């Protein structure tokens, strides 16, 4: 703009000089030189105007690119904040599931202890019933013996009346005692049967409640397994997306570098490395092949990681610490990839 202003001032001076020269009617040779200089200055003015318009268009395009990149960075930051929120929510869910598991395990222990105590009581009652049955059998045997004695006393009735009367009194006493004992035995049998029925009902109810609790715990464990599987898949998917974004950013950086490099700089690099330009391009292509091999290796590692998490889920208790270490390892990998991606984006910007 300053050059333009200078040129315009010079043009004005030249015009003024030409006007004064026309008035004074000077020689024609210097006026021709002035016209030539006027034309040169007008050409310079046109060139400077063209350069100014080109530079303004390039500035506008660069501003648009900067705005697009800033919007893209804002979107990425919003996505990162969303992912962090999802991670915190998932961690809280895992902690809640752990507390639920602990509570269910404690409930199982208490129910098992109550079942064992009930079984012991049932065994004790069964032993008592068997003992009472043996005592009843012994009483029956005694009754048989007493009836035999009674028959013997009846045969000897005529011989010994006094003894028979005494024996009769003893027999009546024994019979009354036997009736009382039989009544007591029947009462004991009825009480024992009632107790056994009530215990059987209680044990059946306790078993039903335990089965319901076991079903609930198994359903919760299945939900936890599906949650961990979904979380591991989401982690793997997000890491793959980050890797592809990093590769795209690297490719964009390489393309920008290639575009920035002129033919002279390529020839200079080839002369420094003591190779031809075609050899240098082949070396750059080999780096791309190494990148593809690296992506294959990363894909295989991700597969092995998923299989390892599934094996841990199917392993015996306790496996929570090992599973937590595996997931934390993947989260750290994701964190490193995010840092690498942010650094690449900063360099590209």
TrEMBL record:
Annotated stretches, region: Disordered: 1-34
Cross-referenced InterPro entries: CNTLN
A GO BP annotation: centriole-centriole cohesion
GO cellular component: centriole; centrosome
Origin superkingdom: Eukaryota
Gene3D superfamilies attached to this UniProt entry: 1.10.287.1490
Biased composition (Basic and acidic residues): 1-17
PANTHER family reported for this sequence: CENTLEIN
Name the UniProt record assigns to this protein: CNTLN protein
Lineage of producing organism: Eukaryota, Metazoa, Chordata, Craniata, Vertebrata
Gene name of this polypeptide: Cntln_0
């Amino acid at each position: 703009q300053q050059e333009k202003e200078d040129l315009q001032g010079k043009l004005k001076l030249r015009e003024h000089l030409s006007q004064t020269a026309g008035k004074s009617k000077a020689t024609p040779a210097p006026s021709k030189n002035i016209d030539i200089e006027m034309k040169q200055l007008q050409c310079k003015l046109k060139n400077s105007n063209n350069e100014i318009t080109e530079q303004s268009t390039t500035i506008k395009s660069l501003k648009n690119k900067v705005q697009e990149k800033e919007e893209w960075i804002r979107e990425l930051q919003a996505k990162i904040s969303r992912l962090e929120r999802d991670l915190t929510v998932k961690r809280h869910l895992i902690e809640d599931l752990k507390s639920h598991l602990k509570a269910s395990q404690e409930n199982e222990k208490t129910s098992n202890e109550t079942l064992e105590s009930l079984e012991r009581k049932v065994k004790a009652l069964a032993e008592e019933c068997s003992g009472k049955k043996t005592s009843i059998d012994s009483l029956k045997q005694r009754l048989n013996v007493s009836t035999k004695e009674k028959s013997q006393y009846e045969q000897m009735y005529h011989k010994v009346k006094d003894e028979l009367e005494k024996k009769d009194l003893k027999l009546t006493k024994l019979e009354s005692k036997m009736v009382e004992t039989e009544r007591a035995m029947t009462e004991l049998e009825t009480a024992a049967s009632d107790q056994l029925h009530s215990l059987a009902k209680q044990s059946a109810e306790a078993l039903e409640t335990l089965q319901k609790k076991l079903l609930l715990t198994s359903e919760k464990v299945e939900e936890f397994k599906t949650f961990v599987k979904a979380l591991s898949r989401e982690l793997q998917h997000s890491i793959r997306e980050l890797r592809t974004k990093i590769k795209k950013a690297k490719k964009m950086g390489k393309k920008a570098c290639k575009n920035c490099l002129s033919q002279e700089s390529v020839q200079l690099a080839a002369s420094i490395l003591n190779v031809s330009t075609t050899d240098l391009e082949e070396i750059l292509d080999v780096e791309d092949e190494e990148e593809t091999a690296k992506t294959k290796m990363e894909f295989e590692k991700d597969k092995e990681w998923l299989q390892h998490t599934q094996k841990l889920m199917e392993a015996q208790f306790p496996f929570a610490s090992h599973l937590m270490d595996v997931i934390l390892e993947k989260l750290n990998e994701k964190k490193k990839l995010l840092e690498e991606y942010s650094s690449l984006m900063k360099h590209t910007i």
